[in-house]
Amino acid sequence: MLAATDGPLLGVNEWGDEDPEPADEPEGFIDECDELATPDEVCRKIEKLSADLVLAVLRSDPPATPVPDAAISFTIANVRRDGAILAAGDGAQAAHRVPLNATTTVSLRDPNKRKAHRYARIWAILGFVHAHLLRNEKVTQRGLYYLITSAPSSRALFPDPASVNSTLLDVVSLTGASRRSLGVVTAPRGEVGGVISIRETIDTPWRSLMGESLQIVGDIAAISRWEMRGDFRYVLIVEKHAVFNRLFSEERVHTRLPCVVVTAKGFPDLATRAFLKRLQTTHPHVPFLGLVDWNPSGVLILNTYRAGGRTSSSVLESSRYALDVKWLGVRSGDLVTNPANIPLTDLDKSKAKNMLRADGVVDPGDVLAPTSPANISTRAKELATMCSTGMKAEIESLCPGSAGGQGRSLSDYVLEKVLRGDYAD
After folding, report:
1. Whole-prediction pTM value?
2. Is 146 a catalytic residue?
3. What angle do CA 268, 315, 179 make, to 5 degrees?
4. Distance (Å, whole) CA 203 – CA 217
5. Catalytic entry in 119, 146, 321, 413
6. 212: Cβ–Cβ under 8 A, 6 or more apart, which residues?
7. Which of 38, 194, 223, 327 could be a cystine partner for 260, CB 3.0 to 4.6 Å?
C-alpha cells in the first residue's frame, strides 16, 4: 500500500494558481477522464506510478544518488479555462472533447517550493485513494480532508480543504480517472421537483415529485441507475434554493406549466449536472431553461451548466455533462419596469471583463455600439450592459408580487417568458 512520505518533504505553504497558462501554445485535444474505471483499474494505475518511481531509483547509478528528474516529476494537463466543447455528434458522449493548450510539470527538485509541495501532495492523495479503493469504500471530498489531516505525516501538508480539493483535481488529470472512479463523491446538494417520477432502484417504488422535492444524491453511479418518467415539456434550472422553493413549493409553477424544476443551490455540482445530462439525453427535444441573477456570477453559473467548471481538471472531469441550456432570464430586457439598482462590486466588474475578454471583447462599449457585429453573443451583450450601467439585479426584484407586494409573481414571470419563447442562446 502506498503511504505519504514523512520527513523534510512536508510543507506548510499553500500553493495556488501561481503558474499562468502559457500563451500561443498549439491547441490539441485530449479525451475526458474515465468515468467508468473500476477500483481495480485505478489501483493498478497508481501502483504503476509507484513501480515506475522505484525502478527509476534502483536503475540510477549509484542507486538513488541522484534520483533521475523524470522519476520525481509529474506532468499535469492544463485545460483551457473557457470549458468544454458542446458540438453535434452521435451518442451521449461523442460530442465532447476538451481543448488542451499546455502542461505543467511538478517536481520534487523544482526550485519553486510550491511545486515541490504540490508534487508531495499528489503522492499523499494517491496513497489515501489507493488504500480507500482497496477497501472498496467511498468518501466525500470534505471527508477526505478530515481523513488526511487525521494522519500526522500529512497534516502539515494540507492546511485547508482547498489544498485537498486542488490536489485531487491534479490526481484526476494525472490518472485520467474521475473523482467518482477514485472513490470520492460529492455531498448531496441538488434538488428536483415537478412533473416527474423517479425510481432510484428496481426494488424501490416510483416516487412522484409533484408534491415534494427529491434531493439529488452525490453519487453519480447511483444517479445512473435512476429511472425517470413524466409528461413534462420544459426543464427549469434555477440558480438559488430560495427561488426554487418559491417556484416549486409555494407557487407550484409545475401545475401551471408542465415542467421539472431543478436547483444546485448556486454553482452546480457534478452530480446535479450528471442528473440533468441524463434527463436531457432521454428527453432531447425538451428545452432546458436557465434562470439566474442578472450579474456576472449568474452568467458564470449558466456557463458552468453549459461547458463545465473553469479549473483545469474539473473541465476534464465534467465535460461529458455539458448541457444545451437556453437563457430564460434574468436578461436586460426584463428590467424595463424594475430597473437594476444594485451597484456592481469591483469583483463583479473583474469577472465581467474577464468573460468579455474570453469572447474576444476588449472594450465593452464596442458591443453596444450601433456598428457592433451582428454575431455578438447574448452573453457578451448582457455583460457589456452590466458594465455600461454599473448595476446588477436579482431574480426576486422582478416580481414583487411573490413577496406580498403589488404586481406579478415569479411564476407569472416564468410562464409569460416560456409561452412567448423568450429565451436566448
Report:
1. 0.69
2. yes
3. 75
4. 18
5. 146
6. 193
7. 194
